[in-house]
Amino acid sequence: MRGRKTIPTAIKELKGTLEKSRVLENEMKVSVINEIPEPSEDLNEEGRKIWENVCHELKRNGILSTVDLDLVESYCQEMAMYKHATRQLKNKGAVYKSQSGYPMINPWQTIRNQALKSATNIGQLFGITPSARARIPQQQQPASKLEILKKKIS
Q1: Is residue 148 part of a domain?
Q2: Taking residues 33-61, what's their average pLDDT?
Q3: 106 CB-near residues (< 8 Å, 6+ apart)
Q4: Structural domains counted in the chain
Q5: What does the H/E/C string look like for 114-144?
Q6: Nearest-angstrom CA–CA distance, 32 and 77
Q7: 57: domain range?
């Protein structure tokens, strides 16, 4: 058995649970980006909107990194495909008649389901789903000098 997933040191720091004995050795450190990069030309208009929203939230939480941009792009492509497939199903219906007259499930149903499954799996890595979001601590604002003094007095 593999046991629990390893929690990065930065997350332990944010949670306030970091102990010297639990610091990971040789942990990969990535640089956080402070500006949202331009989306790839491979993304369609829908994917670009999703890119802006997702990158904005990742940046706001201090977890937007250059090494993750390809996965963010994959998430955006999958969600754009999901939305496209949903529109196709709305227009053509979930069931149609085949050439032989038998009812068949529209292939867009399978495409939509697979795109949502893939997007959910990728989204969990970034805390995009509600359950994954609960496991990622929010970045704390630094305390003001006044707040620090108040804590020392109490």
Answers
A1: no
A2: 94
A3: 88, 89, 92, 93, 94, 95, 96
A4: 1
A5: HHHHHHHHHHHHHCCCHHHHHHCCCCCCCCC
A6: 23
A7: 9-137
